[in-house]
Design goal:
By secondary structure, the protein is mainly α. Helices cover about 75% and strands about 0% of the residues. It has 14 helices and 2 strands, in the order ααααααββαααααααα. The chain has a two-stranded antiparallel sheet with strand order 1-2. A hairpin with a 2-residue loop joins strand 1 and strand 2. The protein is globular and about 60 Å long. The chain starts with a helix and ends with a helix.
Length: about 325
């Protein structure tokens, strides 16, 4: 293993341990055990089923993007691959590791270049994140809140500036970096530039009709609304129901922060973020951590459904995993 990879993983372990230490130092462990013992498990079981329902919608959205790039397969293929990706998210050292697996599998299945598969997966991710942020921004406009004196609306403004910059770079960034691209070069920067070039090449072949755009938009907002309802229900199962609009304003930010790859699988970051966000709603720390742990458990159990689709994984990938 290369030294940079080892260093990166060591830093993630250190950050994970530090954040967990910070979180649990401020929590009464006995109260956490008591709260977990009183969770409404029946409601959580229903939420797992709802989570799977949302993935059915997401599989169709991914299929629309993949088909626009010429990777045409039946819905069943995308449905199975989506759940396999969920399973790999549990085992790979990243929250998006399963996306790479999905991209590899659909590219292999359709005989398309790998960067086409990655482009379809990234577009699916982006559509889901943007719709979630739109709903969160709307909720923040309806419910004014502050985190340690910082208005949540200001946070959303900064997020949208960053999102607009990222989308602009993804759409037209080739004009900026093209002159720096050296064919055949193997440095880390050149590999990143080559990856961007491949992504733009894939986007150039995309053909997304008006009906497909409407379908993607409808699925994205439907699933995002479902996600907000689902994770707010975890607080109900924990016995600390929070305001629905306020939670809708905070949860997209929790999701965004958890995606930052500074810890192992978001562990530590997720718990710390929940504590900070739910403190805005005056939720006690032990209750906030209970909700965070229950939410994480919900995701883990839902992702394990991918084990039913292990037979569809290519033999060479199955042997490595």
């Amino acid at each position: 293993m290369k030294t940079p990879a080892v260093t990166s993983q060591a830093l993630k372990v250190a950050v994970t341990c530090l954040l967990l230490l910070i979180v649990f130092r401020s929590i009464d462990a006995a109260r956490i055990r008591q709260n977990l013992a009183h969770l409404d498990t029946g409601r959580l079981a229903l939420l797992i089923a709802v989570c799977w329902l949302g993935q059915l919608f997401c599989a169709q959205r991914w299929r629309v993007f993949a088909c626009s790039l010429g990777m045409r397969q039946g819905y069943g293929t995308f449905f199975q691959y989506y759940f396999v990706g969920m399973l790999f998210n549990l085992g790979l050292p990243s929250l998006v590791g399963g996306d790479v697996v999905k991209a590899y599998m659909i590219s292999r299945k359709t005989g398309s270049p790998m960067h086409y598969g990655l482009a379809s997966v990234l577009q699916d991710r982006a559509a889901g994140l943007i719709s979630l942020l739109v709903l969160g921004t709307t909720a923040a406009a309806l419910h004014a809140m502050e985190w340690r004196g910082v208005p949540v609306r200001l946070v959303y403004l900064l997020v949208w500036i960053g999102m607009a910059s990222a989308l602009g770079m993804a759409w037209k960034g080739e004009r900026i970096y093209r002159k720096y691209l050296i064919p055949g070069a193997s440095s880390m920067i050149q590999k990143a530039l080559a990856g961007l070039h491949d992504f733009h090449e894939a986007l150039g072949t995309m053909r997304l009709e008006a009906g497909a755009v409407l379908q993607v938009t409808g699925i994205s907002f439907l699933n995002s609304a479902l996600v907000l309802w689902l994770f707010r229900q975890v607080s109900v199962a924990a016995g600390y129901p929070v305001d629905a609009i306020a939670f809708a304003a905070l949860f997209p930010l929790i999701t965004l922060i958890t995606l930052v790859p500074v810890s192992l699988g978001g562990i530590g970051v997720r718990e710390w973020t929940y504590l900070q966000a739910l403190a805005v709603l005056n939720v006690p720390p032990d209750a906030a951590l209970t909700i965070a742990l229950a939410s994480s458990a919900l995701v883990v159990v839902a992702d394990l459904a991918g084990a039913f689709f292990l037979p569809v994984i290519p033999a060479e990938l199955r042997s490595k995993s």
